[in-house]
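User: Predict the structure for this protein chain, please.
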Amino acid sequence: MSEPEAERTFGPSALLTPANAITVVRLLLAPLVFWLIYDRGSGWLLFALWLGITASDSVDGWLARKQGTTRSGAFLDPLADKVLALGGLWAVVLNGRFWWLPVALITAREVLISGFRSYWGRQGLAVPASQIAKFKTFLQFTAVTFVVWPWTTSTTWLADVTVWSAVAVAWVSAAQYVVAGSRSTSVTGSA
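Assistant: Here is the predicted structure, written as structure tokens:
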């Protein structure tokens, strides 16, 4: 249920919002985190930084819903999620902790669906993020978490099962996006 417009702090065209600031900080910290994952593999500081940077996704989402969603936030937040998830996963691959195949499959899914969403957007259609796609991002973040968390870093099967689960959920959500986008185009007559 959406809040009345009068209670919203920011309108759709706002740029400088607390939610957007958190998202930009996430993007700015990402290269440091990726380097630490590649260089160190795990550790308490890295774990805390990774947990903070990924958990802040919930904080910026909560702020955006409370203070008003913006077009810039609707672009930046999913971008930050993709950068963090894919960058974290590839850093783990480069560190030698994940096989490249599951991460390549996740990357292919992201490229494919980003292309579809871009195409549908040019047709005037919006296909919002589904709950399963949000769960996919959670699994991707969790797979990296299991690698960088000192308590689970030596339990490789846990991270492996999680990353392969993320692959399965990623492709199920991809199929849902394709079906949802196809239905939108056939119902509207566009595309």
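Residues 156-188 form the longest helix (33 residues).
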